[in-house]
Write a structure and sequence with these properties.
The protein is α+β, with helices and mostly antiparallel strands. Helix content is 25%, strand content 39%. The strands form three sheets. A six-stranded mixed barrel has the order 1-3-2-6-5-4. The chain has a four-stranded mixed sheet with strand order 10-7-9-12, with no helix packed on it. The chain has a three-stranded antiparallel sheet with strand order 8-13-11, with no helix packed on it.
């Protein structure tokens, strides 16, 4: 996984009044869970942009005063009106303990179904995986080269050596749908076939009528 550094400061005060003051100073209150003790920190708001507003997922090397903590983001609270970050929960991690985290999906290859006119849809942009931090990739690469028209790729189809997918087996990752244009062509071809069949039936009926008239004469 990608790693990124983040600086903060240890805080001892808490409560709404103190948090409001931090936000006025363009700082964000946060808590690091998962260690021996919970650690309360304050972060500079602008330093969070490269971590939060990106599809990438990071292991964060957080330095707060004399403490160095390796962690990941577990939860982010946004202001309902301004959409500013108002609080973050971190989870402290270690290299010898398995980690469950949602990683971005990266589709690799050119689908057969797309070449036939289908439309590729990425249903889940992230999937949860479990493994040791050093074994987790930046993204889950999924080969879709063999994905046919009308087929879907499920989490049950994905197998990795150093980590495992922890989503339900029936979770759809990507699918190739029949495009409307393809449907239109199919309908047109079907109609042509029906019209040809009707013309043949009409010709046969005319032939039978003419034969009957000749017999009567």
């Amino acid at each position: 996984m990608k790693e990124i550094s983040l600086k903060g400061s240890i805080r001892t005060e808490s409560g709404k009044k103190f948090a409001k003051q931090l936000r006025k100073e363009e700082r964000v209150p946060a808590v690091v869970y998962g260690g021996k003790d919970n650690i309360m920190v304050a972060l500079i708001e602008k330093d969070l942009k490269n971590i939060i507003y990106t599809p990438d997922v990071f292991i964060i090397n957080l330095s707060a005063d004399k403490k160095n903590i390796k962690c990941i983001i577990k939860d982010i609270q946004f202001h309902p009106v301004t959409d500013r970050v108002i609080h973050i929960d971190f989870l402290q991690i270690s290299d010898d303990k398995k980690l469950t985290i949602a990683l971005p999906v990266k589709l690799v290859g050119s689908s057969i179904g797309v070449k036939e006119g289908g439309h590729l849809s990425l249903i889940h942009r992230k999937v949860r995986v479990c493994g040791f931090p050093n074994d987790l990739p930046d993204a889950i690469e999924v080969d879709i080269a063999d994905l046919m028209l009308g087929q879907s790729l499920l989490t049950d189809d994905l197998v990795f050596d150093k980590f495992e997918i922890v989503e339900p087996k029936t979770t759809v990752i990507a699918t190739v749908k029949v495009a409307r244009v393809a449907k239109g062509f199919a309908t047109a071809e079907s109609l042509e076939g029906v019209e040809e069949d009707e013309e043949e039936v009409q010709d046969e009926a005319k032939g039978e009528e003419q034969g009957e008239e000749q017999e009567e004469n």
